[in-house]
């Protein structure tokens, strides 16, 4: 029998989905603080907590990052090919497309470069943040391709990413304008060893 807490946790995990259409509405600072506070409760190897956060509400800066990353991403997708690549390339080449889906806020989860398991720790932190956001009625999406910005020292400086840190999880947050259908999940392949 599940407790109310278990029911709520499993419900948030099951119902969360990536949002790519945001309402034109700011996310209050205290809500973002709560989301980050949930993030730092994530497990971390040796208790190092290698994370640091940059909260970007400057939509012009977000647009410049998107404009920088899109052609590089298009080149990567074009070279790789594969199923769906032509459709994705058409989206990337559309002048209206914004890598951040016009979300009102971008949060960069950074890891200290020297932290041996920093990428894993920060990925766990990011998942906590996305789940907490969903529980608060806020949508999110992990924009992995935005890490391309690390190739641009000027934009990294504008984003205030210290030289001894790397971007692990570029996350956008905002109030969903629409809710997409939840993608079906394949049954897990499990090997049991008695």
What attributes does this structure have?
194 residues; alpha+beta; NADH Oxidase; 6 helices; 4 strands; 14% strand; globular
Folded structure, characterized:
- The protein has a domain at 11-57 and 102-174: 3-Layer(aba) Sandwich (NADH Oxidase).
- It is 40% helix and 14% strand.
- It has 6 helices and 4 strands, in the order ααβααβαβαβ.
- It is globular, with a radius of gyration of 18 Å.
- The mean pLDDT is 94.
Mean pLDDT: 94
CATH topology of one domain: NADH Oxidase
- Let me know the number of strands: 4
What's the CATH H-level superfamily name of one domain? NADH Oxidase
* Class based on secondary structure composition and strand pairing: alpha+beta
Q: With helices defined by DSSP (H or I, 4 residues minimum), what is the helix count?
A: 6
* Structural shape: globular
Quick take:
By secondary structure, the protein is an alpha+beta fold.
């Amino acid at each position: 029998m599940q407790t109310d807490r278990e029911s709520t946790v499993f419900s948030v995990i099951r119902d969360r989905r990536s949002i790519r259409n945001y309402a034109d509405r700011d996310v209050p600072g205290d809500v973002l603080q709560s989301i980050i506070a949930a993030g730092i409760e994530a497990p971390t190897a040796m208790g190092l907590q290698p994370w640091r956060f940059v909260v970007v509400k400057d939509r012009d800066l977000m647009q410049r990052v998107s404009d920088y990353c899109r052609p590089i991403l298009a080149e990567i997708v074009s070279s790789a090919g594969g199923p769906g690549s032509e459709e994705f390339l058409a989206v990337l080449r559309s002048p209206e497309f914004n890598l951040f889906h016009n979300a009102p806020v971008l949060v960069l989860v950074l890891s200290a470069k020297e932290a041996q398991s920093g990428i894993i720790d920060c990925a766990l932190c990011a998942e906590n943040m996305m789940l907490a956001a969903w529980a608060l009625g806020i949508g999110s999406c992990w924009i992995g391709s935005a890490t391309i910005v690390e190739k641009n020292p000027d934009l990294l400086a504008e984003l205030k990413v210290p030289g001894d840190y790397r971007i692990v999880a570029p996350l956008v947050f905002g109030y969903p304008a629409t809710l997409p259908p939840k993608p079906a999940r394949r049954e897990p392949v499990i090997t049991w060893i008695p």
